[in-house]
Amino acid sequence: MSPLARTICRKLKEKPQQFSEIVDAHRDVAWRDLLRAWGEIRDKNILQRGDDGRYLILNARKKPARR
Fold this sequence. Notes:
The chain contains 3 helices and 2 strands. With 67 residues, it is mainly alpha-helical. The protein has one domain (3-57). Strands 1-2 form a two-stranded antiparallel sheet. A hairpin with a 5-residue loop joins strand 1 (47-49) and strand 2. Helix 1 crosses helix 3. The radius of gyration is 13 Å and the shape is globular. 9% of the residues are buried. The mean pLDDT is 90.
């Protein structure tokens, strides 16, 4: 993933956000680059939406519980 996509992922792991919040946080990035990074995240199938519509990424690297 690109550095921008990794940054967005990290932020979504920290705090779920609306797409508009993601856009506002990256106003210095070209729209095309932002959409490309967003597409990378979507292609990884790690993006989810909360009940309130905010995007989030759950930590997929959790270890299974020992028995």
